[in-house]
Automatic annotation (TrEMBL):
UniProt GO BP: L-proline biosynthetic process
Keyword entries, A-Z: Amino-acid biosynthesis, Cytoplasm, NADP, Oxidoreductase, Proline biosynthesis
Pathway: Amino-acid biosynthesis; L-proline biosynthesis; L-proline from L-glutamate 5-semialdehyde: step 1/1
Protein name: Pyrroline-5-carboxylate reductase
Function statement: Catalyzes the reduction of 1-pyrroline-5-carboxylate (PCA) to L-proline.
One term under GO cellular component: cytoplasm
Length: 275
């Protein structure tokens, strides 16, 4: 668990910066130990006041921090690193939440030997049910990795893996909520076409998704086993699954996630090539 006295600097007050800051406060972290800064001083001050944390210029906030969280858009990362670099002190962990920004890009723009962690969170972090994957660089000690893990654990679950898997993580959990929202949207529309009021169809689908996810998590059963529990021979579910297989839905999901992983790699390679 993250020590409530850990000094955390949030660089960026956008969606993910707000999400992680709010998660830290919900987890009981001291508001006085969370500082928020950004390129736009007025906006950063307003966001910090709204969240109830401390605001300070980057040059004042970063020195002495235990963790500096880079919660900026990928296109703003170079500028953010330029502000952070001269203010970093030895031992600070830099945690990047920007999609497609590889460790090599960050290492090249920070003082040599800086402990850097690359992370891929996802949008359910906004409701405390996020899934984040972190990849530390070789300079990180086990204690520094735990600091980075502790920051993101305030928004959900965290796993640690080598950076070479980050493109797959992006395709599966980073983009994953969009796939599920797409399925939910399609099921709701199906309910409407079958004569249900939209509000009823929405309630049925959302609770079904929540219940199914809870079963997966709490029973520990393989999804195939859970699916077969619903699939009575000659029944309605079998008829529906036959249609999905005939339309190659499983193959489409595989292709879609492979495309997302390729795109993630292309973006990362492009950042390195432009360095």
């Amino acid at each position: 668990m993250l020590d409530t006295g850990t000094r955390i600097v949030m660089v960026g007050g956008g969606v993910m910066g707000r999400t992680v800051t709010a998660g830290l406060l919900r987890a009981g972290h001291s508001a006085e130990q969370v500082l928020l800064c950004g390129r736009d001083p007025e906006r950063a001050a307003a966001t910090a006041a709204e969240l109830g944390v401390t605001n300070a210029p980057t040059a004042e906030a970063v020195p002495g921090a235990d963790v500096v969280v880079l919660a900026v858009k990928p296109q703003d990362m170079d500028a953010a690193l330029g502000q952070v670099r001269p203010a970093l002190t030895a031992g600070t962990v830099v945690l990047s939440l920007a999609a497609g920004i590889p460790l090599a890009f960050l290492q090249a723009r920070l003082p040599q030997g800086t402990a850097v962690v690359r992370a891929m969170p996802n949008t359910p972090s906004q409701v405390g049910q996020g899934m984040s994957a972190i990849s530390p660089d070789p300079h990180c000690t086990s204690e520094q990795v735990e600091l980075a893990r502790g920051v993101l654990a305030s928004t959900g679950l965290v796993t640690t893996l080598p950076e070479r898997y980050q493109d797959a993580v992006t395709a599966i959990s980073g983009s994953g909520p969009a796939y599920l929202f797409f399925v939910v949207e399609s099921m709701i529309e199906s309910g409407v076409h079958l004569g249900l009021p939209r509000s009823t169809a929405t309630e049925l689908v959302v609770q079904t998704l929540f219940g199914a996810a809870t079963m997966l998590k709490e029973t520990g059963e393989h999804p195939t086993m859970l699916r077969e529990m619903v699939s009575s021979p000659g029944g309605t579910t079998v008829a529906a699954m036959r249609e999905l297989e005939d339309h190659k839905v499983r193959a489409a999901f595989l292709s879609a996630m492979e495309a997302a992983a390729r795109r993630s790699k292309d973006l990362s390679d492009g950042v390195v090539d432009d360095d």
